[in-house]
Amino acid sequence: MAITRLPSAGFSITIRIAVPADASSIGRLTTATGEAGAIVTALDVVDSDPTSVIVDLTCDTADAGHADQVVEALTALEGVDVRKVSDRTFLLHLGGKIEVSPKVALRTRDELSRAYTPGVARVCMAIAENPADARRLTIKRNTVAVVSDGSAVLGLGNLGPAASLPVMEGKAALFKRFGGVDAWPVVLDTQDTDEIVAIVKAIAPAYGGINLEDIAAPRCFEIEARLREALDIPVFHDDQHGTAICVLAALTNALRVVGKQLADVRVVVSGAGAAGTAIMKLLLRQGVGDIIAYDRQGALHRGLPDLNPAWQWLAENTNKENYSGDLPGAVRGADVFIGVSAPNLLTGDDIAAMAKDAIVFALANPDPEVDPREARKHAAVVATGRSDQPNQINNVLAFPGVFRGMLDAHAEEFTEEMAIAAARAIADVVGEDKINPTVIVPSVFDSRVAPAVAAAVRAAAQNPAVTPPPAADPGPADLPEIAANASATP
């Protein structure tokens, strides 16, 4: 059975099956599953008797339709009784993925009197007299709001606030797991820029930082800029800056693998939304040779009509030769392709037409811009956003450590110096003696990553002059930017 999408743990199912108790039955199950295009990840015997065996067969499939096809293939086997099919992803989400747990015991009247009334009144009065004490005496010092309006949920589009909640819950769980940061989803039933800014400003006193998530471009640029100006806590749009940090880290090591310098390479970026724009701005500040930005309008170039301000800025500050053709033409002869857009935009032949020792980051999820199996036939280094492929570029490498560092430093803003420091820390965790074409970023489970990123961000917050100055300023300060302060604005 031919499938166009790669099987993924995101579509993992467990099938409870009764089969005859003979030597070939279980082998027939695994063979049929493989022939249906799924990947068997576990097979457990649940029960048995002299005539039958009940097993739980767990496999990764490509999507819900493919899962149905696998079940149908198993059901068609002689003597097989499919009794139940469980979607493991939905099972994991039952009841949500996070909870609130008190840090203090409340076992006696004495403990209650200090944690709540009357003792808590003294703490309230102390904060009223000195508001800065809120960071010391409340959850503020370690708490982040994960804010979304549901207008750009993953690669799925405008699903609204309720449908965005599973993503925000997952983000909060990752904050805690990898950075020790307490984060909470704040999903907003409005997509009005002014209302979002007003709401976040109103809830900000309870938080030490704001993580904006899955807010569509170009509104996300204005929302972030206005909140940074209004608040005295860091505002970080992970779709922009988390992605840009991880891409810069991965590209740093990929260039080490192929022996090229950033200043000498031509980069093509497919997707000029929040992530793509931030990636390009950070690369420009680091002195990249040239970039061609590609989106629904085609290659962004000078003279292209009806561009929004963010795209107009990119058209004026990238694409030195003013290329105006299609995406396959743009990647021809390019050193690097970075995709943060849509699946199946390029073929293996397109990658073959890139420069020698090409680098391909096809980050669309779950299906990349080019099949990584085809890309690896022609490119020297290939990375995706998938956990089942080598070189997974995942924002969890960045945001837990970035916020851990900002919270520890009592930072009031997120800066470009922090972004560069975080990217270098992630790249250096791998170690120059360890990198190779299939290892350009550390594992998301590498326990060294978040502490290294936190330390680098904390140092950048406390001593910003330590970070080498960025390249010459390529654009006006009132357009989408990496940092809040004028000196670090692209």
UniProtKB/TrEMBL annotation:
Matching InterPro entries: Aminoacid_DH-like_N_sf, Malate_Decarboxylase, Malic_N_dom, Malic_N_dom_sf, Malic_NAD-bd, Malic_NAD-bd_bact_type, NAD(P)-bd_dom_sf
Domain Malic enzyme NAD-binding, first and last residues per copy: 240-462
CDD domains, alphabetized: NAD_bind_2_malic_enz
GO MF assignments: malic enzyme activity; NAD binding; oxidoreductase activity, acting on the CH-OH group of donors, NAD or NADP as acceptor
Disordered, as annotated region: 461-490
Source domain of life: Bacteria
SUPFAM superfamilies (alphabetical): Aminoacid dehydrogenase-like, N-terminal domain (SSF53223), NAD(P)-binding Rossmann-fold domains (SSF51735)
Keywords, comma-separated and alphabetical: Oxidoreductase
Protein's UniProt name: Malate dehydrogenase (Oxaloacetate-decarboxylating)
Gene3D superfamilies per UniProt: Malic enzyme, N-terminal domain, NAD(P)-binding Rossmann-like Domain
Span of domain Malic enzyme N-terminal: 95-228
Pfam family, one: malic
